[in-house]
Amino acid sequence: MPTKTVEFAVGRTPEMGVDSRPAYGPLAPIDVAEPDIGSEHMLINIGPQHPATHGVLRLVCELDGETVLRVIPHIGYLHSGFEKLGEYRSWNQVVPLTDRMDYLAPLIYNCAYVMSVEELMGIEVTERCKVVRVILMELDRIFGHLLFAGTWSIDVGAFTPFLYTFQEREKIYSLHESLTGARITTSATRVGGMMADLPEGWAEACRKFVNELPHTLDQVDYLLASNGIHLGRTQNVGIISGEDAINYGFTGPNLRASGVPYDVRKDKPYYDYESYDFEVPIGEHGDCYDRFIVRLEEIRQSIRIINQALDRLPGGPINVEDPRISLPSKTDCMNDMESMIHHFKLITEGIHAPVGDSWFSVEASKGELGMYVVGDGGTNPVRWRVRPPSFVNLSVIPKLAEGHLMSDLIMINASLDIVLGEIDR
Amino acid sequence: MAEESPSGLDAVEEGPSASDPGGSASAGAGTLAPEHPTVQALRARFGDAVGRQEVGSRGQHVVFVDPSRNRDILEWLKEDPGQDYQFLSDLTAVDYGGGRPLHVVYQLFSMTHHRSLRVKCELPVTALEIDSVQPLWKTADWLEREVYDLFGIRFNGHPDLRRILMPENYAEGHPLRKDFPLRGRFSRAEQTRRALSQEVAAFYIPEEMEIGREPQLLDGEAGEAALTPRDEA
C-alpha cells in the first residue's frame, strides 16, 4: 500500500503569535497509509438547513476524496422580495424592511437606508442625530463582529468563546431594547431623524458596556489568537490577493484582510467620520486567520469611536424641524391646528421626494453597504436597491474553496461572515 | 387574479405611478457640481457613444452611454491609468414602467483617484440585451445574474446566466418589472401546486447532475456499467 508523508505546518514563523506569545512550531512529518480509492468524483450537498452554513445556504460540492474541486452555491431560499415590497410603501414604511435584511446588525441597515433617502431629498440632519447614528452604527458593528467571533469559534471546534461573545451580545440586545423596544427588528430611524431620542441613562449604559467589553475581547483573543489548532485550521486557508479581492468585489474586513486599506468611513467619509480618531486594521496574507484578526481589531476601534462620540454627544433636537418631514409632537397635534394638519398629511401621504436617483454607501459590519434610491416626485420609491455586501462576498466562495479540504470549506464560509437575510433579500 | 380579495389591492396591482426618466437634471437637492473630469475624457474619446449627463443630489454624476458600446467604454474606464475605476461598487437595473426603457446602472469607484461615477445604459423593453462586463469585474458575475433574474435583461457573454434568487423553473416572469403584480402572476393555489410538485431536476442544475451521475445499481449488467470509470466506458 502506498504511503504519503503529511507535514503539519502550524504557525507561519516561530515568532508568529499575538502579543509576543509564541505560536506552536511544526510537528514531525507523519507517514500515512494511502489506499487506492480510484478517481471517482463525488457530489456532496451541504444545506440548505445546516448549522455550518450560517443560514439557509446550499452548497453543492464536487469532491475528489476529501479535496473540494468545485463549489456551486445556491441561494434564494430566504428571498422575500424586499426591494419589490419597498416600491409599494412610503419612504418611512421601508425602514422595517431594512432591519430584517441583516438581523445581526440591524441598526446599520436602518441608518444606511434613511441616509440614502436624506441624500436624495437633500435633508441635513441635526448634529445630535449624526452623533447618535454614529454610536448606533458602531455599536452594531460590534454586535455583528461578536456574532462572527462566536460562530467562528464554534466552526473551528471551540465552544467557550461562543459563550463569552454571546453574553456580550445580550447586553447590546438590552441596549437595543431600551432604545427601540425591540431586540432585533429595531426600526429605529426615520427620514430626518430617529424614532425617538436616547432614553434617560442610555448613554451611561452604553459607555459602561464599551468599557467592559475589552475584557471579554482579551479572553476571546487569548483563547483563539495563538491556539495551535485554530492557527492550523485557518492560516493559509482561503487566500485571496488584494488585486483579486478588489476585482471580485470584496469589501469590508474581507477586503482589508487582503491588505487593501479601503474603508468607506475613511475613503468616502460621512457623518464626520474623518474627525474621529480611529485606525483601519489591515491584514497581510488575505487568509481566514487574517479575516478573523481584522474583525477582532475592528471591535476595538469601534469602542474607541463610541467613546469619542459619547464624549461629544451634543444636545438639541434629534429630528429636523421641518413639518413636511418630521412628525410634530403629540402635544402639538392635540393643541395646534397646523401641527395636526401636518401630522395628518405625513401619515396619510408621506414625504415627497424629488425626481432623481441617489447612491449612498456606508461601511456595514459585513462590508460596503450601498443603497440606491430612485424617486419620481411621489411618496414612495420607484426603485430601492440594496447593494448587499454579503451577496458579493459569498460569490467568491467557489474561488476560495477550490483545492482545499472539505473542513476548510466550513472555515472559509465562516470567515466570509455572511448573513443570508441580506443575500436573499 | 379572481381569487384575490377585491378590496384595496387594486392600487397595489397597478404599481406606483411612473415618472419621466428622460427629464433633465434632477430637481431638489441637486446643486451643480464642477464638471466631472472622467465625463470630459469619455466624450473626447468615445464621442457620440456618450450621451447626456446628469448631476444628481450632492454632486453625484451620472452619464448615459450607448448600450451597444458599454463593454468598450467600461473597459477603458477600468484600464486607462487616468481613470482607473478598478472597483465596480454595484450593478443593477431600474424599470420606470409604462413601456419606457429600462436603465442598467453601473456604479463605479476609483480607489486611486477617489472618484465615483454612475454609468447608465438605456435599453428599450423590446430589446433587453447588453454585453456582460463579467470578464472585466468578477463582481458582475452574480450581480448580472440577479438583474437577469429580476428584470429579464440578458447579458451577452456571461458564462453562467441562470436565475439566482428565484428558483430555476420559476415560470411567472421577472419580479422587479413594473408589470409584475406584487403577489405574482399565478394564483396562490397554482403557486402552492407548483411548489409541491418539484422534481430532482428543480434542485440540481445539469452541471451538478453530471457530477452525481446515475445512482449505482449493484446487481446485473447495469451495476457493472455503473462501476466502470467513465473515461473507459
Entry keywords:
heterodimer; A: 425 residues; alpha+beta; three-stranded antiparallel beta sheet; 17 helices; 45% helix; globular; B: 233 residues
Question: What would your notes on this structure say?
Answer:
The complex is a heterodimer of chains A (425) and B (233). With 425 residues, chain A is an alpha+beta fold. Chain A is built from 17 helices and ten strands. In chain A, a hairpin with a 2-residue loop joins strand 6 (189-190) and strand 7 (193-194). Chain B has 233 residues and is of the alpha/beta class. In chain B, the strands form two sheets. A five-stranded mixed β-sheet of chain B has the order 1-2-5-4-3. Chain B has a two-stranded parallel ribbon with strand order 6-7. The longest helix of chain B has 12 residues, at 140-151. Chain B is globular and about 60 Å long. In chain B, 32% of the residues are buried. Classes of the chains: A alpha+beta (425), B alpha/beta (233). At the A-B interface, strand 3, helix 1, helix 3, helix 8 and strand 8 of A face strand 3, helix 4 and helix 6 of B.
List the helices and strands and how they pair.
The complex is a heterodimer of chains A (425) and B (233).
Chain A: E1 3-6, E2 30-33, E3 41-46, E4 58-64, E5 67-74, H1 82-86, H2 95-99, H3 106-121, H4 127-156, H5 160-180, E6 189-190, E7 193-194, H6 202-224, H7 228-234, H8 242-247, H9 253-257, H10 264-267, H11 288-312, H12 330-335, H13 337-348, E8 355-363, E9 368-376, E10 383-387, H14 389-394, H15 397-401, H16 406-416, H17 420-424
Antiparallel strand pairs in A: 1-2, 3-4, 4-5, 6-7, 8-9, 9-10
Helix pairs in contact in A: 3-4, 4-5, 4-11, 4-16, 5-6, 6-11, 11-16
Chain B: H1 10-14, H2 37-46, E1 50-55, E2 61-65, H3 70-79, E3 87-94, E4 102-110, E5 115-123, E6 129-131, H4 140-151, E7 154-156, H5 188-196, H6 206-212, H7 220-227
Parallel strand pairs in B: 2-5, 6-7
Antiparallel strand pairs in B: 1-2, 3-4, 4-5
